[in-house]
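Below is a filled-in request sheet from our internal design queue. Each sheet records the structural input a requester submitted and the sequence that came back. We keep these sheets so that new team members can see what a complete request looks like end to end.

REQUESTER: design group, bay 2
PRIORITY: normal
MODE: inverse folding
CHAIN LENGTH: 213
BACKBONE (tokenized):
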């Protein structure tokens, strides 16, 4: 099972705002730490079986997606037992533009923040279908120096290139290894970058090789 706490595993725009979130929490005297960023299918299923999630499949937390992170209180033995802490942190995240899981009525998830688009319209079904929200604007406040759009664009482009290079070298997961090898042997995929995202033109080539178009 794979469960990362590395902020760099998040999509670059979300990673940048995650770091701002931690800075804002620190400025408010809230000792927040990151408890999870991306995970694989096996870890998500384990969370589901233990009653910590209502979904068997990772979506916003999925590897190669990186649109959500979980946080907790950085006080040993009291990581999750302070509702006021999560309320205050959740409100900070919402002020930045994140969707806070503590607002969910059917399955409240107080340690969870995700970027689901400017109006929070993106759902798990969108992520599974490959429909991802646009880049999250970098949040600026009195505690954080304001960054120009040009600076953010340059930072985002560099971070995306670094992120693409990082996931390109990751091997196929255990749950997909057999299917990945079969697709490679059949000539449907070239065998490179099993966890790298597909562009639309690459999807078109795959569909053509499958004789679906």
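RETURNED SEQUENCE:
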């Amino acid at each position: 099972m794979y469960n990362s706490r590395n902020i760099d595993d998040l999509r670059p725009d979300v990673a940048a705002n995650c770091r701002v979130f931690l800075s804002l929490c620190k400025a408010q005297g809230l000792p927040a730490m990151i408890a999870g960023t991306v995970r694989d299918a096996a870890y998500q299923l384990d969370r589901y079986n233990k009653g910590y999630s209502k979904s068997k499949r990772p979506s916003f937390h999925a590897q190669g997606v990186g649109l959500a992170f979980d946080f907790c209180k950085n006080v040993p033995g009291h990581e999750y037992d302070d509702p006021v802490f999560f309320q205050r942190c959740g409100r900070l995240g919402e002020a930045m533009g994140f969707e806070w899981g503590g607002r969910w009525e059917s399955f409240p998830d107080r340690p969870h923040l995700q970027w689901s688009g400017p109006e929070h319209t993106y759902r798990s079904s969108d992520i599974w279908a490959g429909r991802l929200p646009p880049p999250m604007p970098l949040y600026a406040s009195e505690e954080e120096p304001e960054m120009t759009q040009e600076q953010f664009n340059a930072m985002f482009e560099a971070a995306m290139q670094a992120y693409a290079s990082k996931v390109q070298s990751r091997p196929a997961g255990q749950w997909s290894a057999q299917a990945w090898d079969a697709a490679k042997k059949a000539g449907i995929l070239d065998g490179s970058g099993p966890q790298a995202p597909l562009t639309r033109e690459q999807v078109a080539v795959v569909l053509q090789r499958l004789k679906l178009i």
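SHEET NOTES:
- The chain has two domains: 7-167, 172-209.
- Strands lie at 32-36, 68-73, 99-100, 112-114.
FILED BY: M.R.
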